[in-house]
Amino acid sequence: MAKSLPSRGATNTDLVADIQKSLVGALEKGSTITQFRKDFDAAVQNHGWTYKGKRGWRTSVIFDTNMRSSHMAGRWEQLLANSGSRPYLEYRTAGDSRVRPQHAAWNGLVFPIGDAFWQTHYPPNGWRCRCTIRAYSEDDLKALGTKPSAPFNLKTRTVVSQDGEIKDQVPVGIDPGWDHNVGQSWLSPELALGQKLAALPRYLQGPMVDKTISPAYQKVLNDDFKAFRNVIKTDKVARGNAQIVGFLDSRTLAALSEHVPTLALETTAVAVLDSKTVHLTGAHKAAKGAQLWPADWIDALPENVRNYRAVLWDTKNGTLVVVPFGQATNWAGVLGDSVAKIVLRPNVKTKAGLAASVVSLGSSPRGDLLKSGQYKLLVGKL
Question: How much is the pTM?
Answer without folding.
Answer: 0.56
